Amino acid sequence: MLKTIQKTGQLAFELPQKWLDRAFGNALNPLRHLGSLTIFFLWIVLISGIWITIFFHTSVVGAFESVEYLTVEQWYLGGVMRSLHRYASDAAIVTLVLHIFKEFVFDRYRNARWFSWVTGVPLLWMIIPLGITGYWLVWDQLALYVALVSSEMLDALPIFTDSMARNFLSVEALSDRFFTLMAFTHIIGLPIFLVFSIWIHVFRITRPKINPPRKIMVGALLSMLVLSLVYPALSQGKADPALVPESLALDWYYLLIYPLLNYWPPATVWVLLVGFSLLICIAPWLPPARKTEVVRIDLDNCNGCERCVEDCPFSALEMAPRSDGKKYASEVIVSSNLCLSCGICVGSCPTATPFRTRSALSPGIDLPDRSVADIRNRVTEATQNLEGSRRLLVFGCEGSLKSKAFINAETAVVKLTCMAQLPPSFVDWALSRDLADGVVLKGCAHGDCQYRLGATWTRQRMDRERDPQLRKRVDAEKLALLWSEPWCDFPDTTSAIAAFRDTLNAPYKISDHETSARVKTRKHTFRPVGVALAWGLFAVASVVFTIWPRFSQLAEGNGIISLTFSHAGQRVEECRKLTQEELNKLPPNMRKPSDCPRERHSVDVLFSADGKVLFDQSMPPSGFWSDGESTVYYRMELPSGSHELFIGMSDSGREDGFDYSGQTEFTLTDGQHVVVEFDHLQQTFIFR
Ligand code: HEM
Ligand code: SF4
Ligand code: SF4
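A: This is the predicted complex of the input protein with protoporphyrin IX containing FE.
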């Protein structure tokens, strides 16, 4: 089941990735840099955010005007910064979703990788509230909706005794203090947590790609800039608690779940969110990945050179003081819970050489079930029956070698866990021992190595830029490197291999498969039109779901009535005067004239319009001792027009009738928001 989902996801990813490969080339394809691209967009958000903060007024009265000033008066700079801030935030969600999708479908989230996966989930819980609080600060109509719905969500948690949502129902209730808290959360609190959490997220990865290549950064920034100039971000009219706009342009990237609150109670939405997050968290163990045997160290053959530690992509190796008394200063040790059995460290060990024949081929570090000795045996076996004068030995990694169409009497294949599991000396050995006339290394395209750095290390080792290097005596014309997308072969792998075979006897010539005369690799050229088109589409994708489809929060021709007040019910038992005898029994410092049991009655409220009961509930007292106020908060839609409204409340636990009531004839207009409150001084209800 999981395999089928992943396979389908891979196919869905393959097409755009191939298309973008054609435009950008493998190395500069943004789909191969999704994590770092997300970080880059967050940088744009941070820098543009600093500019906005300079001009932002942290108050109910000033917030909207200060953002309007930036947008209108300072459109050329402040307006652009505001648009960059908004659109880069949306772009970050687009790349983030693709990042999660890619890690999942290519199965890069299980085994030791669970750590990056699980630590990604809190990032979601930071980045989404960052967007939500950002929309809140603009204090336009969308902000009011966000404030109301967010507070309704928070009210469902057993944190606050009073209703937070009540603060946003009328102009009188709005407070600057709340605004300051929100600004602090958005500008300082959440960003600090986010940076720290991204650091933890990539903590276990060696050399994480934090920054995308420069050309991708330029493309990403330009696309956001052009978008900001062509379609500047605007506010949606100043927030007015007395009005409810019929529809809003909702940013679906950040506010996707908000409309659910029109249908479900907040508690259900919380269960959904928390449940979904927990499901993502346990995904690496649904089912657990097959655990392969991790690398073993053979201290007799380890000279402590540290190359394996340098090359391990998952921080699974470290150096420790020598424990066997040999002359070397250090030895390598393995953290088996971090090792993914990729074998990249084996390919980096200078002692993993097939030329060793006098002693057993036991390198300093090796995979027990796919050892170097086993690779040597398989090469010998696979090549022994090759025929002709253009015999090819193809080494391929598990990820990229799916087709066997090219295997024939002239071509043998040896599969490896990762291309970088192959020590370069194997190429030298196969050619110098005349086991083959040419060697092909077939790995995953740049940035798509299943083990992150395998393709990069292989390229550098064969290019003689990284130890262990391919020996100089190897004729580079006899080595070809073919890179392809993971899990799928080039349709032309067979033809590429056949073409390489032709070069063994003829002058080298393979179209579209070379970078240098020495190392041949599939390479797409950079195509500016395709690149511009791709970034253009990306910009459209970043903005389209911030304006479409519009969210209709109120049916046409309706208004809203909110019941909102806090009121303490009467005490369940009256205070009783203590007798002298009772007082004498108490310690002197605890003596008080009367005993007042703390528990209060629930507050029962009934609200009806035109004789139809719309709300009838009993609100229990808050507080641990049931001695606090009861809070009423309820929003309801009513058709506009004249209505006979009635509200009754009892706080004495009486069975029939009401202790307080209010009645009025009210004409509700389209989109009007009427608040029903209880005036404690006058002991009456107010409709406003
Ligand atoms: C603000 C949000 C995020 C950012 C900026 C981010 C960034 C990154 C970066 C830079 C890497 C290292 C890539 C590399 O060098 O190979 C990475 C790896 C990873 N990320 Fe994220 N990430 C985010 C959220 C998430 C989320 C929500 C998940 C999944 C729930 C996730 C899953 C992973 C996994 C599994 C890896 C490890 C890949 C590997 O071991 O090859 N990330 N992320
Ligand atoms: S097998 Fe891979 S993950 Fe394990 S130690 Fe070697 S390089 Fe690191
Ligand atoms: S690369 Fe080989 S020799 Fe060098 S430290 Fe690692 S195991 Fe030892």
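The pocket of iron/sulfur cluster (ligand 2) is lined by residues 294-295, 312, 314, 316-317, 334, 339-345 (CB under 6 Å). The two ends are 57 Å apart (CA to CA).
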